[in-house]
Amino acid sequence: MGTRTAEERRREIVRAARTTGSVDVTALAAELGVAKETVRRDLRALEDHGLVRRTHGGAYPVESAGFETTLAVRATSHVPEKRRIAAAAAELLGDAETVFVDEGFTPQLIAESLPAGRPLTVVTASLPVAGALAGAEDVSVLLLGGRVRAGTLATVDHWATRMLAGFVIDLAYIGANGISRDHGLTTPDPAVGEVKTQAVRTARRTVFAGVHTKFGAVSFCRFAEIGALEAIVTSTLLPATEAHRYSLLGPQVIRV
Fold this sequence. Notes:
With 256 residues, the protein is α/β, with parallel strands linked by helices. Helix content is 38%, strand content 24%. The termini are far apart.
């Protein structure tokens, strides 16, 4: 493939990570014709620039203003982990009668895990969530209006936020592209951030549910602080020590 500059190599690594969802040090070294140590150095540099997160033996892309995974990709990654998290999050419903369910695949799984046989009003910006619950008995679905974003099939902009501002919601189930102790909950798109900010503001209780790879990741738009959360639901793949650090900021952290 010819010799490349470090910059070209790193651009290629980012492109590969974004196309496939993750990259492997050994495979990259072979493909780029360089030593594994060179690839590791590239990944460290890319991590410093906020473009990837390193894992044992590889890396995955960080969602940013310029890059966001689609719902289709999210529906195929970490699925067993997401199902466990969604089931545990649904158990936090308590006596809530009105619930906001965020856009994204994990919130969609939460919506499908909500207990049947009791009256519930679900407010959502997500077309898939509305579709999944529209036929459910005892569930009344309010879909926020607005512009539909293609990648996530959710509504945004002032129509959605204005409608949401008119409600008082018992419990909001929120997703994010990144969650960090320093920067709180973040998402790449300002329009999405506005809807999430409004949902957190409107809700008496807020629960964040997300896979372990979201932790420590920082995206472009901050929409909530960790202290605004009643609970964080994730999996045991998030180390207990790290979970404890988040709990010191206020929320209960549940690992399943």
